Amino acid sequence: xxxxxxxxxxHNELGLKSFEEGDFDxxxxxxxxxxxxxxxFGDADTRLANTLHQLGMLYYAQHRHPEAEPLLVEALEIRVxxxxxxxxxxxxxxxxxxxxxxxxxxxxxxxxxxxxALELRERALGAxxxxxxxxANNLAVLYRKVGKFEDAKAxxxxxxxxxxxxxxxxxxxxxxLSNLGSLLWVQGQAEEAETAFRKSMRLGVRxxxxxxxxxxxxxxxxxxxxxxxDRFEEAExxxxxALVARVxxxxxxxxxxxxxxxxxxxxxxxxxxxxxxxxxQRKSYELLEGNLGSTHEDTLTSLLDLAALLETAGKxxxxxxxxxxxxxLWESGTRTFSSRNGVEAYLSMLxxxxxxxxxxxxxxxxxxxx
Length: 370
Prior knowledge:
Helix content: over 70%
Strand content: under 5%
Structural class: mainly alpha
Number of helices: 18
Radius of gyration: 26 Å
Number of strands: 0
Largest sheet: none
C-alpha cells in the first residue's frame, strides 16, 4: 500500500534516530536488521551501501575498528559498482575509511585515501564545495600529527576559507580554527594562535552554544596558551568554563575528566595555590586509577604529582606513604619510567629529611641489578 514503509526503511530510520540521540545499542540493533533487509535488494543497491556505511561508522565511533573496516570497504565497493568511480558518495566512503585508518595510525594508507577523497570531491563538486573543505581539514589533521606543519597549515587555511565563503556561520569552521590555533602554538606563533582560538570561540558560542564540547575544547586550549605566558588571571575563568562543560559532556567519572582535573590542579600548583590544587589532584588520581588501573603510566604520574603536592603542603607522612607505593611497585616488577621516577622522588625526599642512610640502603637494594 502507498505510504507504508518497508521493513528496511523502518529499521534504517530507527537506527538514524537512535544514533542522533546517542543510543548506540539501539542504533546498532536497528542497522543490523536494516543490513539484513537490504541484502535482499542485491549486491549493487545503494541502500545496502548506505546502511553498511552507517553501521561501519557507528562501530568506528565506538572504536570497534575490526568490525567497522569490512563494512566500510563493502560499502565503498558497492558504491563504485552502482554509482561509478567519480560519484561524491565514493569520496565519502574513501574519507570514512581514511578516518578509520588514521585512528589506527595507518598513516600512509589514511593519507592516500584522504588525497583520493579530496581530489574526487574537487572534480565532482568543485573546488569551493564544503565537502572539499572537510577533506582538506581531515588531511590537515593527519599532516599535523606526523609533523608536516606547513602542509597542515595551508590545508587548514583552505578549509576555513571555503567554509567561510559557503556560510560564515558554518559550524565546522569552529573546530578548524581551533585546530589551526593549536598548530600555530606548536610553531611558536603565539599571537596568531590566540587570534585563531578567539575567533573559534566566538563563532562556536554563536552557532553551537556556550556548553558545546567543541567550544569547551577551544576555551581549554586558549587557557593553556595564556597559562604558558603566565597570564593566569585570564586563563583561570577559561579553564573553569571549559571544565564545567567538559565534565557535563564527558561525565563526572570519565577518564578525560580525571586528566582535566590534573591539568587544573597543576595550574593552581604553579601559582602556589596548594589548598585549591590538592582536592583536584586527589580526584584526578582517583579517576585515573579507576579508569586505567593502579600501574598505568598516567596513574603513576598522577600519584607522583599528588605526592609532590602533599609534601609542599607539609603533609609529609602522606606523601611518603604514596611514594612508598611506587617503591613497592618497582620492587614487585612494575619497572616503568614513572615508577622509577617515584623511587627517585622518594630517595630525594629521604635525603631532604636528613635520612641519608636510609636513602643509600634503599638505592643499593632497588637498583642492585643496574
